[in-house]
Structures are given as structure tokens and as C-alpha cells.
Amino acid sequence: MTWDEIRKQYDGQWVLIAYDELDEQLNVVSGKVVANSPNKEEIYKQLLNTKGMNIAIEYAGEPIQDLSVMFALWPPIR
């Protein structure tokens, strides 16, 4: 699915995406939704089931005011 398709289908929810493609700014271009929930803590729990996948967590709705975002690689690159 494209990011636009994901946003339309999962509007107002947090989504855990096994991405196929990112753009230059590391935004999801396309991928498969692995989990979705209006509660982001539920999405964090689902991370345990994503070993070996390229994963992104996104909010598929209007931008949330005062939201901070952190990007991390796991395992860390050494």
C-alpha cells in the first residue's frame, strides 16, 4: 500500500508498517500495515513481533500538536 492509501484506510490511528520504500527524508512511501490501533502503546507492544522487518510507526491522521518524534535504528550501527 502507498502511504496515501494507508492514511485513508487507517485515518486517526497509529500504524506499524513493514515498509518497502522510504523517501529521502525517511518518510514511508509504501509498505504493509502490520498492526493498527488508536492507542500507540498497543503498537509498541506489537514491535515484539517484527524481528527482521524494516519497521516504521506512523500516525495516519491530521498532525498531532506538540508531538515529538524520535528516529532510532535497532540494532545500533557500530
Largest sheet, order of strands side by side?
2-1-3
Main sheet record: 3 strands, antiparallel
Number of strands: 3
Rg, Cα atoms, Å: 12 Å
Order of helices and strands: HEEHE
Please state the average pLDDT score: 87
Structure overview:
The chain is α+β, with helices and mostly antiparallel strands and about 80 residues long. It has one domain. Helices cover about 20% and strands about 35% of the residues. The chain contains 2 helices and 3 strands; from the N terminus they run H-E-E-H-E. It has a 3-stranded antiparallel beta sheet. Strand 1 and strand 2 form a beta hairpin. This is DUF5678 domain-containing protein.
Task: Kindly summarize this structure in a few lines.
This is DUF5678 domain-containing protein. The protein has helices at 3-9, 40-46, and strands spanning 13-22, 28-37, 55-60. With 78 residues, the chain is of the alpha+beta class.
Key terms for this structure?
alpha+beta; 78 residues; 2 helices; DUF5678 domain-containing protein; single chain
Task: Indicate the topology.
Blueprint: H1 3-9, E1 13-22, E2 28-37, H2 40-46, E3 55-60
Antiparallel strand pairs: 1-2, 1-3
